[in-house]
C-alpha cells in the first residue's frame, strides 16, 4: 500500500520591489523550500513573486512593467517559482495582507472547482460529485487537510520593518502571523531572532515564524545593483544574464531613474499616518 503524504502543502509568496530582481531573491525561495521540507511537515508546491505596484512610491522604483518583465525572465528556468502581476496591476498600492488573502482565495477557488468539476457517470447521467452527502463529507475532510497554505516569504529586514511606526497596521501584522505565517531568511545587518524577542506581537506568534539561517551569506541587494549600474560597473552573475541583457536593452537604472518619487512619502506611511 502506498504511504499517505500528510505534509501540509505550502505556497510561498514573496512581495517586494524587485527593482531589479537579483539572484538572491531567487535564493530566498530555494532556502525556504529546503528548510520547510527538512521539517518533514510541509511540502512546498509553488513560489510566487509579486512585485509591488508603482503606487508604492518608493524612491528609485521603476515602472512595474519592467520589474515584472525582469522577474519573468529570471524565473524562466524554475519549475516551481512564478511571477504574479495581480498586485502590481491594481490602480493603487495595496497592503500585503490583501495580497496574501487574494492568493489564499485563489487556491481555495481552484480547490473547490477541481472537486466539483469531477463528474461521476451513473446510469448514463452525469452528476456533480458534490451532490451526494458522502461525497460532500469526503470533500470537506479532504479540503481541510489538503488546502494549501500561503505563507509570506521575506528577508530579515522586511520582518524588522514590521516594527516601524506607521508602516504596518497592527491588525495586518496579526492577521499575517495568525492566518498565514512568515518564512524569514536571515540577512546581514539584521538580527531577526532578537527582533522577535523584542516585539510583543511577534513573540506571541513566534510559532508562526520560520527563521531560516542563510549560511552562505550574500549581501546582494537591488540598491547595490542600481548603484553599480549608475557607476557603469558590471552586475554580471549578481542577476541572471537575461536580466542584465534586459537592463542594457532598455537602458534602465541611471541617475534620473534613481530620482523617481524623490521627496514623495512612501504610500503605506502616507496612508497610515493619515488614518492615525
Ligand atoms: N540578500 C538578501 N538576504 C535576505 N533577504 C533578502 C536579500 N535580498 C532581498 N531580500 C528580501 O527579498 C524581498 C524583496 O526585497 P527587495 O525587493 O526590497 O530587495 P532588496 O534587495 O532588499 O532591494 P532594495 O535594496 O531596493 O531594498 C524582501 O523580503 C527582502 O528582505
Ligand atoms: N502595511 C503593509 O502592508 C506594508 C507596509 C510596507 C511595505 N509593505 C510591502 O513590503 C514590501 C517591501 O518591499 P521593499 O523592501 O522593496 O520596500 C512591498 O511589497 C510592500 O508592499 C507592506
Ligand atoms: Zn529591500
Automatic annotation (TrEMBL):
<dbReference type="InterPro" id="IPR005248">
    <property type="entry name" value="NadD/NMNAT"/>
</dbReference>
<keyword id="KW-0460">Magnesium</keyword>
<dbReference type="GO" id="GO:0004515">
    <property type="term" value="F:nicotinate-nucleotide adenylyltransferase activity"/>
</dbReference>
<dbReference type="GO" id="GO:0005634">
    <property type="term" value="C:nucleus"/>
</dbReference>
<protein>
    <recommendedName>
        <fullName>Nicotinamide-nucleotide adenylyltransferase</fullName>
        <ecNumber>2.7.7.1</ecNumber>
        <ecNumber>2.7.7.18</ecNumber>
    </recommendedName>
</protein>
<keyword id="KW-0597">Phosphoprotein</keyword>
<dbReference type="Pfam" id="PF01467">
    <property type="entry name" value="CTP_transf_like"/>
</dbReference>
<keyword id="KW-0808">Transferase</keyword>
<dbReference type="GO" id="GO:0009435">
    <property type="term" value="P:NAD+ biosynthetic process"/>
</dbReference>
<keyword id="KW-0520">NAD</keyword>
<dbReference type="GO" id="GO:0000309">
    <property type="term" value="F:nicotinamide-nucleotide adenylyltransferase activity"/>
</dbReference>
<comment type="pathway">
    <text>Cofactor biosynthesis; NAD(+) biosynthesis; NAD(+) from nicotinamide D-ribonucleotide: step 1/1.</text>
</comment>
<comment type="subunit">
    <text>Homohexamer. Interacts with ADPRT/PARP1.</text>
</comment>
<keyword id="KW-0548">Nucleotidyltransferase</keyword>
<dbReference type="InterPro" id="IPR004821">
    <property type="entry name" value="Cyt_trans-like"/>
</dbReference>
<dbReference type="GO" id="GO:0005524">
    <property type="term" value="F:ATP binding"/>
</dbReference>
<comment type="pathway">
    <text>Cofactor biosynthesis; NAD(+) biosynthesis; deamido-NAD(+) from nicotinate D-ribonucleotide: step 1/1.</text>
</comment>
<feature type="domain" description="Cytidyltransferase-like">
    <location>
        <begin position="13"/>
        <end position="227"/>
    </location>
</feature>
<feature type="region of interest" description="Disordered">
    <location>
        <begin position="109"/>
        <end position="137"/>
    </location>
</feature>
<dbReference type="InterPro" id="IPR045094">
    <property type="entry name" value="NMNAT_euk"/>
</dbReference>
<dbReference type="InterPro" id="IPR014729">
    <property type="entry name" value="Rossmann-like_a/b/a_fold"/>
</dbReference>
<keyword id="KW-0662">Pyridine nucleotide biosynthesis</keyword>
<dbReference type="InterPro" id="IPR051182">
    <property type="entry name" value="Euk_NMN_adenylyltrnsfrase"/>
</dbReference>
<keyword id="KW-0067">ATP-binding</keyword>
<comment type="similarity">
    <text>Belongs to the eukaryotic NMN adenylyltransferase family.</text>
</comment>
<keyword id="KW-0862">Zinc</keyword>
<keyword id="KW-0547">Nucleotide-binding</keyword>
<feature type="compositionally biased region" description="Basic residues">
    <location>
        <begin position="120"/>
        <end position="129"/>
    </location>
</feature>
<keyword id="KW-0539">Nucleus</keyword>
